[in-house]
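User: I'm preparing a small set of examples for a lab meeting where we compare how different chains pack in three dimensions. I only have the primary sequence for this one, and I'd like the structure in token form so I can line it up with the others. Please keep the answer compact; I'll paste it straight into my notes.
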Amino acid sequence: MQKTLLTKLSIIVGLCIVFSIGLAMISDIIYERQYYAESVIKEITKQHVNPQEVINPFIAIPTTVTPACQSDTSDTPNTKSKCDSSYSKIETLFATQTQAAQNLKVNTDTYKRGIYSATSYDGQLTFDQSYTFAEALDKVDQAATITNNDSDSVDTSPNSDKTQPAKTITHWNQAKLIIPVSDLRGVATLPTVTINQRSIVANYPQTPMLENLTYVEVDIPKNILDQLTSPTSQQNKNSRVATGSTNKNLDKSENNNQPPNPKDNQALNIVIDLPLAGISNLTTVPTGQTFTLSMHSDWQTPNFIGKALPNTKSITAEGFDASWRNQYLTVANNQYLSQCISTPNQHCTIMSESSLNTDSFSTVSEGVVTASNDSSTTNHRNIQLNSFGVSFASPNDVYLQTERAMKYALLLILVSFGTFFLFEVLKSSRIHPIQYLLVGCALFVFYVLLLPLAEQVAFWQAYTVAASACVGLIGWYSYYVFGSFKRALIFTVTLAGLYTAFFGILSTEDLNLLLGAIFCFVILACVMVMTRKLDWYKVT
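Assistant: Understood. Below is the structure token output for the 540-residue chain.
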């Protein structure tokens, strides 16, 4: 008797092992189809547009620096002085206040390849900025003073060699508003920029001021710059010049004699309307003194990504609203960007390469700059800029849900075989191992049907069709196995309840592990209750 029981249990365990191998093969198919879907979406991004990352616009001002120079001509008059040549660098002016608004419409039908599609968005980004030029001028002058401090160590006594003080020229007439966008293919039309109520159309840079950074730029009108910078001499109308330490006292005396100019406190108000399209996710790099971002979209399942979560958010059936404000991340970006952009001869570059995953890809790559302004290509460090935003990828995609369903596959087979076995020991039914095998195959086919159906229709529809087909087939077959309509009905209802319970567990994303554990406990408890009075030594 016991030998027959052990043989039957060994056959059931062996069948479970065989089906486990088959389920592993189906899992490999799921990963393969998921990889293929991702490769199709990557192909779409190459042909159309990538995920977008936008850096808060800022003003870039080119400067020319002539280092301090001391030449020795006392012994060899014909010897040329070996002085470092002039070099260029860029000063940055960040907005004192920025209010950014993003209104996005999300669509899953814009870019399709057969049964695969990429989640795309299209909308309007608005930046309302204010620049206080009194602080900006102080910043530029301070930068020039730091550059010129090297000349303080030069001996200017009558017996010393000829000395040339350091000089910094700020080219205000070449100042530009920089609007960085990681993939300009998503900018269908050049943005319209309003500077102090004057509308200007942005343009693509003919000679990029910043290397390795994709952006559009706006020439700031000269009359506005003249009003804001208020040059004090005819020489400074086109450039603001800072000289070395030998002229510091003279500059101070001249400045003390000049009356304060009320225009120094004027603000530059800039409004940028940027049309933008992208795929999957959108992130923003905040800069300036005060930065706030508000986002509105019709997407119901946003995934907030980046270095900061929204301060406030509201998610409804119509979409979501979210707003960000993080002073620390903004200040850190100011430091990284200003230090990088102001590096001589652009030995530090900004690279924005946002991609399909949820990480920010704006980095600052900086080389070691020597005294002769040469960059060492062997020592570079990458600094990742701080950003935040949203991903529009659905958290419960087809492949993820199918993979979750696969985790309960072995449990489903065990419960089905266990129900057959209980009918054998409790109702004295005779079930052949081949019948176990056929029922297991029918349960196995459910997962074979689920994935291809889910790629064509909604997951719940695919699940319903596959489960109904398998439950109907097994219910019809169990009538002939048990030879009783009542027993077949009990088994069919039990199997349908299992599929329903598993779908409820899959639909509850945050509680699926807890519900799955409770479900396993309930199944075990039911088996123990039903077999509590069974004498296993008498089972044949």
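A couple of notes for your slides: Residues 396 and 405 are 12 Å apart (CA to CA). Residues 150-160, 231-264, 368-379 have pLDDT under 50 and may be disordered.

User: Perfect, thanks.
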